[in-house]
Specification:
alpha+beta, single chain, 9 helices, Glutaredoxin, four-stranded mixed β-sheet, 4 strands, Glutathione S-transferase Yfyf (Class Pi), Chain A, domain 2, binds glutathione, 2 domains
Length: 206
Protein backbone atom coordinates (compact mmCIF):
# COMPACT_ATOMS: atom_id res chain seq x y z
CA UNK A 1 0.00 0.00 0.00
CA UNK A 2 1.36 3.39 -1.05
CA UNK A 3 0.47 7.04 -0.49
CA UNK A 4 1.03 9.39 -3.39
CA UNK A 5 1.39 13.09 -2.57
CA UNK A 6 0.35 14.83 -5.74
CA UNK A 7 -1.57 17.44 -7.68
CA UNK A 8 -3.05 17.06 -11.20
CA UNK A 9 0.23 17.48 -13.05
CA UNK A 10 2.24 15.47 -15.60
CA UNK A 11 4.98 14.55 -13.09
CA UNK A 12 2.40 13.21 -10.63
CA UNK A 13 0.55 11.28 -13.33
CA UNK A 14 3.72 9.35 -14.19
CA UNK A 15 3.54 7.76 -10.76
CA UNK A 16 -0.21 7.09 -10.62
CA UNK A 17 -0.02 5.47 -14.08
CA UNK A 18 2.89 3.26 -12.96
CA UNK A 19 1.05 2.27 -9.76
CA UNK A 20 -1.95 1.25 -11.88
CA UNK A 21 0.27 -0.64 -14.33
CA UNK A 22 1.79 -2.72 -11.54
CA UNK A 23 -1.57 -3.12 -9.80
CA UNK A 24 -0.55 -1.65 -6.47
CA UNK A 25 -3.02 -0.21 -3.97
CA UNK A 26 -2.49 3.46 -3.29
CA UNK A 27 -4.21 6.51 -1.95
CA UNK A 28 -3.66 9.98 -3.30
CA UNK A 29 -3.14 12.92 -0.95
CA UNK A 30 -3.56 16.31 -2.57
CA UNK A 31 -0.74 18.80 -2.19
CA UNK A 32 -2.36 21.85 -3.75
CA UNK A 33 0.56 23.59 -5.46
CA UNK A 34 -1.57 26.61 -6.44
CA UNK A 35 -2.15 27.18 -2.72
CA UNK A 36 1.56 26.65 -1.95
CA UNK A 37 1.00 23.53 0.16
CA UNK A 38 4.28 22.11 -1.16
CA UNK A 39 6.14 24.66 1.00
CA UNK A 40 4.77 23.44 4.33
CA UNK A 41 7.42 22.32 6.83
CA UNK A 42 5.82 18.88 7.05
CA UNK A 43 5.96 18.33 3.29
CA UNK A 44 9.58 19.56 3.12
CA UNK A 45 10.53 16.67 5.39
CA UNK A 46 9.72 14.25 2.56
CA UNK A 47 10.44 16.58 -0.37
CA UNK A 48 13.57 18.67 0.17
CA UNK A 49 12.91 20.87 -2.89
CA UNK A 50 9.16 21.22 -2.11
CA UNK A 51 8.11 19.41 -5.27
CA UNK A 52 5.43 16.88 -5.97
CA UNK A 53 5.22 13.95 -6.54
CA UNK A 54 6.36 12.06 -3.46
CA UNK A 55 5.55 8.40 -2.93
CA UNK A 56 5.43 6.80 0.50
CA UNK A 57 5.56 3.06 1.04
CA UNK A 58 3.12 2.69 3.93
CA UNK A 59 4.51 -0.72 4.88
CA UNK A 60 8.11 0.40 5.35
CA UNK A 61 7.47 4.10 6.07
CA UNK A 62 10.09 5.04 3.45
CA UNK A 63 9.29 7.91 1.11
CA UNK A 64 10.69 8.77 -2.31
CA UNK A 65 10.91 12.06 -4.22
CA UNK A 66 11.73 12.81 -7.92
CA UNK A 67 9.35 11.18 -10.37
CA UNK A 68 12.10 9.41 -12.37
CA UNK A 69 13.62 7.94 -9.21
CA UNK A 70 10.14 6.86 -8.10
CA UNK A 71 9.55 5.10 -11.44
CA UNK A 72 12.88 3.27 -11.13
CA UNK A 73 12.02 2.31 -7.55
CA UNK A 74 8.64 0.94 -8.63
CA UNK A 75 10.11 -0.90 -11.63
CA UNK A 76 12.63 -2.60 -9.34
CA UNK A 77 9.98 -3.19 -6.66
CA UNK A 78 7.58 -4.85 -9.09
CA UNK A 79 10.10 -6.39 -11.46
CA UNK A 80 8.12 -4.88 -14.32
CA UNK A 81 8.24 -2.10 -16.91
CA UNK A 82 11.99 -1.59 -16.91
CA UNK A 83 11.88 -2.74 -20.52
CA UNK A 84 14.01 -5.35 -22.24
CA UNK A 85 17.18 -3.30 -21.94
CA UNK A 86 17.59 -1.28 -18.72
CA UNK A 87 20.41 0.86 -20.12
CA UNK A 88 18.27 1.90 -23.07
CA UNK A 89 15.27 2.56 -20.81
CA UNK A 90 17.46 4.71 -18.53
CA UNK A 91 18.59 6.83 -21.46
CA UNK A 92 15.04 7.58 -22.58
CA UNK A 93 13.93 8.10 -18.99
CA UNK A 94 16.78 10.53 -18.35
CA UNK A 95 16.12 12.55 -21.47
CA UNK A 96 12.55 12.92 -20.28
CA UNK A 97 13.65 13.96 -16.80
CA UNK A 98 16.48 16.27 -17.83
CA UNK A 99 15.13 17.77 -21.03
CA UNK A 100 11.64 16.88 -22.28
CA UNK A 101 9.86 17.70 -18.99
CA UNK A 102 11.82 20.82 -17.99
CA UNK A 103 11.74 22.35 -21.51
CA UNK A 104 8.06 21.65 -22.17
CA UNK A 105 7.43 22.92 -18.64
CA UNK A 106 9.00 26.26 -19.63
CA UNK A 107 6.90 26.26 -22.80
CA UNK A 108 3.79 25.88 -20.59
CA UNK A 109 4.89 28.87 -18.49
CA UNK A 110 5.74 31.28 -21.31
CA UNK A 111 3.20 30.22 -23.92
CA UNK A 112 0.16 29.15 -21.91
CA UNK A 113 0.21 30.48 -18.35
CA UNK A 114 2.01 33.82 -18.75
CA UNK A 115 1.85 34.91 -22.42
CA UNK A 116 3.01 38.42 -23.24
CA UNK A 117 5.70 38.57 -20.52
CA UNK A 118 8.68 37.73 -22.74
CA UNK A 119 8.67 37.27 -26.50
CA UNK A 120 12.18 35.79 -26.19
CA UNK A 121 10.95 33.15 -23.72
CA UNK A 122 7.85 32.40 -25.78
CA UNK A 123 9.80 31.92 -29.01
CA UNK A 124 12.68 30.02 -27.43
CA UNK A 125 10.57 27.42 -25.64
CA UNK A 126 8.07 27.10 -28.50
CA UNK A 127 10.97 26.17 -30.80
CA UNK A 128 12.46 23.78 -28.25
CA UNK A 129 9.09 22.09 -27.63
CA UNK A 130 8.62 21.75 -31.41
CA UNK A 131 12.08 20.20 -31.74
CA UNK A 132 11.18 17.73 -28.98
CA UNK A 133 8.07 16.70 -30.94
CA UNK A 134 10.22 16.30 -34.08
CA UNK A 135 12.92 14.22 -32.35
CA UNK A 136 10.39 11.95 -30.64
CA UNK A 137 8.47 11.55 -33.90
CA UNK A 138 11.65 10.62 -35.72
CA UNK A 139 12.64 8.04 -33.08
CA UNK A 140 9.14 6.57 -33.05
CA UNK A 141 9.15 6.28 -36.85
CA UNK A 142 11.33 3.18 -36.42
CA UNK A 143 10.53 2.15 -32.83
CA UNK A 144 7.17 1.13 -31.44
CA UNK A 145 8.02 2.50 -27.98
CA UNK A 146 10.79 4.76 -26.73
CA UNK A 147 12.95 1.91 -25.46
CA UNK A 148 11.76 -0.96 -27.69
CA UNK A 149 9.09 -2.35 -25.31
CA UNK A 150 6.59 -0.33 -23.23
CA UNK A 151 8.48 0.89 -20.18
CA UNK A 152 8.88 3.57 -17.51
CA UNK A 153 10.42 5.77 -20.24
CA UNK A 154 7.04 5.85 -22.04
CA UNK A 155 5.19 6.25 -18.74
CA UNK A 156 7.37 9.28 -17.93
CA UNK A 157 6.96 10.92 -21.33
CA UNK A 158 3.28 10.27 -22.00
CA UNK A 159 1.73 12.75 -19.49
CA UNK A 160 3.83 15.56 -20.98
CA UNK A 161 2.67 14.87 -24.53
CA UNK A 162 -0.86 14.56 -23.12
CA UNK A 163 -0.74 18.32 -22.54
CA UNK A 164 -0.54 18.79 -26.33
CA UNK A 165 -3.67 21.00 -26.57
CA UNK A 166 -1.89 23.80 -24.69
CA UNK A 167 1.32 23.38 -26.69
CA UNK A 168 -0.28 24.62 -29.94
CA UNK A 169 2.27 22.63 -31.93
CA UNK A 170 -0.23 20.32 -33.61
CA UNK A 171 0.37 16.76 -32.43
CA UNK A 172 -1.63 15.43 -35.40
CA UNK A 173 1.15 16.64 -37.72
CA UNK A 174 3.55 14.16 -36.09
CA UNK A 175 2.13 10.86 -37.20
CA UNK A 176 4.54 8.52 -35.38
CA UNK A 177 4.28 10.43 -32.12
CA UNK A 178 0.49 10.41 -32.53
CA UNK A 179 0.52 6.64 -33.13
CA UNK A 180 2.55 6.15 -29.93
CA UNK A 181 0.32 8.55 -27.97
CA UNK A 182 -2.87 6.81 -29.10
CA UNK A 183 -1.43 3.39 -28.31
CA UNK A 184 -0.62 4.37 -24.73
CA UNK A 185 -3.74 6.50 -24.20
CA UNK A 186 -6.06 3.48 -24.41
CA UNK A 187 -4.25 1.31 -21.86
CA UNK A 188 -6.67 0.69 -18.96
CA UNK A 189 -3.97 1.49 -16.38
CA UNK A 190 -3.13 4.74 -18.14
CA UNK A 191 -6.79 5.81 -18.17
CA UNK A 192 -7.13 5.03 -14.46
CA UNK A 193 -3.83 6.59 -13.45
CA UNK A 194 -4.41 9.70 -15.52
CA UNK A 195 -7.59 10.40 -13.55
CA UNK A 196 -5.76 10.34 -10.24
CA UNK A 197 -8.31 12.50 -8.38
CA UNK A 198 -11.29 10.65 -9.91
CA UNK A 199 -12.62 13.78 -11.59
CA UNK A 200 -13.31 12.13 -14.97
CA UNK A 201 -10.13 13.51 -16.51
CA UNK A 202 -9.04 11.76 -19.71
CA UNK A 203 -5.92 12.12 -21.86
CA UNK A 204 -6.99 14.59 -24.57
CA UNK A 205 -7.82 13.34 -28.06
CA UNK A 206 -5.49 14.26 -30.90
N1 LIG B 1 12.09 16.77 -11.37
C1 LIG B 1 10.92 16.75 -10.52
C2 LIG B 1 10.04 17.92 -10.88
C3 LIG B 1 8.87 18.01 -9.98
C4 LIG B 1 8.09 19.27 -10.25
O1 LIG B 1 8.56 20.22 -10.89
N2 LIG B 1 6.88 19.28 -9.71
C5 LIG B 1 6.04 20.43 -9.87
C6 LIG B 1 4.63 20.02 -10.32
S1 LIG B 1 4.69 19.04 -11.79
C7 LIG B 1 5.91 21.15 -8.54
O2 LIG B 1 5.97 20.53 -7.50
N3 LIG B 1 5.72 22.46 -8.62
C8 LIG B 1 5.53 23.25 -7.46
C9 LIG B 1 6.60 24.29 -7.30
O3 LIG B 1 7.55 24.31 -8.10
O4 LIG B 1 6.51 25.10 -6.37
C10 LIG B 1 10.16 15.43 -10.70
O5 LIG B 1 10.11 14.96 -11.83
O6 LIG B 1 9.65 14.88 -9.71
Amino acid sequence: MFELFADSTPNARKVSIMLEEINEDYKVSLIDIDKGEQFSEDFKKISPFSKIPVLKNLKTGESYFESGAILIYLANYSGDFYGENKDLTNQWLMIQMAYVGPMIGQHHQFHHYHPGKSSFGEERYFQIAKTIYERLDNHLSHNEYLAKTYSIADIATFPWIARHPIHDIGLKNYSYLTRWYNLIKIRPAVLKGYDLFKKDEFPPLV
